[in-house]
Amino acid sequence: MPPPKDVVKIAIQMVGAIPQLIELQQTKPLASVLKDVCDAWSLPNAERYALQYVDGRQTYITESNRGEIKNGSILRLTTSPDQEAERLYSGIQSNNLDVKTDSLKKLASLSQDVTFAQEFINRNGLKQIFSIVEEGNDTGEMLAHTLKAFMELMEHDFVSWETLSAAFIKKIVSYVNMNAVDASIQQLSLSILENMVPTSRLLFELVKKEVTLDRLLTHLQVTNAQLQLKAMALLIALLLAATDAERRDMMDYLREKNIRQFIHKNIIHSSEPLGDEMAHYLYVLQSVSLNLCERRMRTSMDPYSQEQRELLQSLRQTAFEPEGEAPASNFSTERRRSLCAKEFRKLGFMNNSNPAEDLRRAPPGLLALDNMVYFSRHTPNAYSRFVLENSSREDKHECPFARSSIQLTLILCEILHVGEPCSETAQAFYPMFFGQDHFFEELFCICIQLVNKTWKEMRATQEDFDKVLQVVREQITRTLSLKPTSLELFKTRVNALNYSEILKLRQTERLHQEETLAVPVLELRERLKPELLELIRQQRLLHLCEGTLFRKISSRRRQDKLWYCRLSPNHKVLHYGDVEEGVHSPPIESLPEKIPVADMKMLLVGKECPHTKEKSSGKQNKDVLELAFSIVYDVEEYCLNFVAPTRYEFCLWTDGLNVLLGKEMTSERTQTDLDVLLSMELKLRLLDLENISIPDTPPPIPKPPSNLNFCYDFSHAEQ
């Protein structure tokens, strides 16, 4: 007979004693359980003791978390959190440096536990930490433990970052600004400042004033990868917390200091592989930089603005009024207006009498005008050639420069996600972005010439305008998916992908689709599906057995903490636990937490997950919703919450968990993999039928012959 659900069998250890094997009744008060355990070992004062896990983070057992104890768990009888907090509170005030250092080291370790942290903070322990930092001149091991303990205590959100004293903040800032300080202390100091920045406007202004961009750039140029990472994290935190005007000023200053070239050379192309965290920060830096275009993109042209009208007129003058040649001032006003209208029509404006009307649509708004002016000023020969070449064509075959530029700007904004909020988890950045100043404008210059080239290749007329721009969008997206490392390489590849190549790719895709739609082929597909779906199921479970590294994400900031989850080889238990940075595939024995697959009840995704509901009070981030999933397990319906690092991992994990639950695989990746496998299998099966058309219906079976006398008689042949 199975044990009751509210009883778990566990082992309890104590140093110097024989372990106890007990049946823990979850309905029994924890104080009574501790009393029984202490009595068995003849220990007085049971209230001074507590239970904690032996493995993993060694969390203290409380009434609120005792439900998470599983059958087979190993616990340790140890000093209670309040007693330990009292002891360490006294220890960090000791005059004996060894005692003080050991106490701070233990404090840094225990502060990860929420129960201990609350007890220590309730004793005004943070005040002691502040005084050690503010009054001490030590920059060695003791200070490193102090700052680590402070970080762990603040992680629990019991105390607001705004309560920090000015003296404490200045001391932390001084560690960042000093040269002769241990790298580990600088890393911790940078992390503390990174946490402070988003919490209040006052702290943001203080950090921005005290830690200059020059100082952060100095830290970025060190060889210590972790210090480089923490400096980048603080830089990103400052950029995200800044106002639009401040962000623009900061980005302008960083541009002057050639930060892009440094990142391109020393970080992206360094000998060390790029970590996930740094990839995310580079993505955010790219996103923040591109979003500086948003204001112009969302601003319509003001026909009464002298500055904007002059920019518009400069386009016409560059194309049609050669340098040194004065405009025909002796013409009448009417004649001059007529001439300008004709020239604006040649430039490709739809409303040639009032071209400002073409730029009233936002997006792309004034960003399209900026791009056209940049193109005309920085590549005047290419600009003049584009305009004059199309001016001399027949009306129906001319490629409208202005109309194309406006639509192309909109396409580039959509492809590069200009104006969209930064993702909390994305790591997809374009390496070529960091190899070029004025990236957006330079990309436009390449792509507008591509429009003209594709227009000629398609022999397009005005009616084909949308078709041409659709082809250009395809050329750009296909080339960007190859992740070119420089704009020159992008230019080479996108020009090589001409209209005939696009047609070939489309035809190949269409033929593949057509040949797989024949009725006999569809029947064969259906017969092959079960076998291939089983193959996909095995692959998903194999991926779960290999495991994945997940990041913990809070509503306050992107966390540095990592945890790993993997399925046991027999597919019966999920193992998980916290791991350190740099550990990629920890052995299954090192993961202390377990969930039996038999206890799993259901899988939740997106908005249904409890950890996305908790964040609903703040600004909800779309991509976190797309990557979030949770496992509901046990009778009490506990949840293990995940945020997948990528959409690919999300698909593989949700599919694998559905397989374990005996349900259908529902991710889009399943359909993609199935299509690829079916396509390969069908091609192999139909290899002998190449160039033979497959009829929709099977050929008729001929009638049987009137007699079977045509059968060969072997007996006569023998004679």
TrEMBL record:
Stretches assigned to the ELMO domain: 307-480
Role this protein plays: Involved in cytoskeletal rearrangements required for phagocytosis of apoptotic cells and cell motility. Acts in association with DOCK1 and CRK. Was initially proposed to be required in complex with DOCK1 to activate Rac Rho small GTPases. May enhance the guanine nucleotide exchange factor (GEF) activity of DOCK1.
Cell division recorded as keyword: no
SUPFAM superfamilies: ARM repeat, PH domain-like
Protein name: ELMO3 protein
GO biological process annotation, one example: cell motility
CDD domains per UniProt: PH_ELMO1_CED-12
Alphabetic keyword roster: Apoptosis, Phagocytosis, SH3-binding
GO MF annotation: an example: SH3 domain binding
